[in-house]
Design brief:
Elements lengths: L6 E6 L5 E10 L3 E5 L11 E8 L3 E13 L2 E12 L7 E14 L5 E16 L2 E6 L8 E6 L6 E12 L5 E7 L4 H25 L1
Antiparallel strand pairs: 1-2, 1-4, 2-3, 3-6, 4-5, 5-6, 7-8, 7-10, 8-9, 9-12, 10-11, 11-12
């Protein structure tokens, strides 16, 4: 079920071209009402697609029919779910950003603050973990605090290295899982993932 508390949504044509964005303010079993600053004119009976994300399911696509259209408000009816792209924790995006490891854990899981932070480059990220490259050598089972420095809210999340692999540039790559990330931390990560995925999709459409 769609959330109704000022949920941001995107409106697409039947051919998956992004038209505009808005805020979902009301939803029933059959209708959804979306507000925006300036909407283009939609014909009554026109079929649109609505993209939103669900806290549990992930990114969801709906098909709906225009029943009312105004400059700042539309009402869509007979909506139904078309697809759930990925579930929340499985959503992964390719990215490249640098961050530092400031805290590691010893074998007894005591925190150790590093005098010289270790620079890593995050290559992909999900709500459940990261893959990064580094000059520093790590081993499977090592634990550290991942410092997420993207977006308005920064996080420090306890992270476990699950695997190590050789990269083409001579560096090592490490696949990691977050340990006991809170729901709030996952919400922040998922909002970042959703925005990156949205922008990547938009760029693909512009280049197609």
């Amino acid at each position: 079920m769609l959330r109704t508390v000022h949920q941001k949504v995107e409106i697409y044509s039947k051919k998956d071209a992004l038209i505009t964005t808005g805020v979902l303010v009301d939803v029933t079993d059959h209708n959804m009402e979306i507000l925006g600053d300036i909407f283009p004119h939609f014909d009554t009976g026109e079929t649109l697609k609505v993209c939103a994300y669900d806290d549990m399911k992930g990114i969801c696509w709906y098909s709906a029919i225009v029943s009312f259209s105004a400059i700042d408000r539309i009402i869509l009816t007979d909506y139904h779910l078309l697809d759930v792209i990925q579930r929340r924790k499985s959503i992964k995006v390719k990215t490249t950003f640098e961050t530092n490891i400031y805290i590691v854990y010893d074998v007894d899981e005591n925190k150790i603050t590093l005098e010289n932070p270790i620079k890593i480059v995050v290559r992909d990220i999900s709500a459940g973990g990261i893959f990064f490259t580094a000059d520093q050598i790590f081993f499977e089972g090592n634990q550290f605090e991942f410092y997420f420095n993207q977006g308005p809210k920064h996080l420090r999340i306890k992270t476990l290295i699950l695997r190590r692999q050789d990269m083409n540039n001579g560096k090592k790559g490490y696949g990691c899982s977050f340990i006991d990330a809170t729901e709030k931390e996952q919400d922040i990560l998922f909002a970042f993932l959703w925005e990156v995925q949205r922008l990547q999709l938009k760029r693909m459409q512009l280049n197609s």
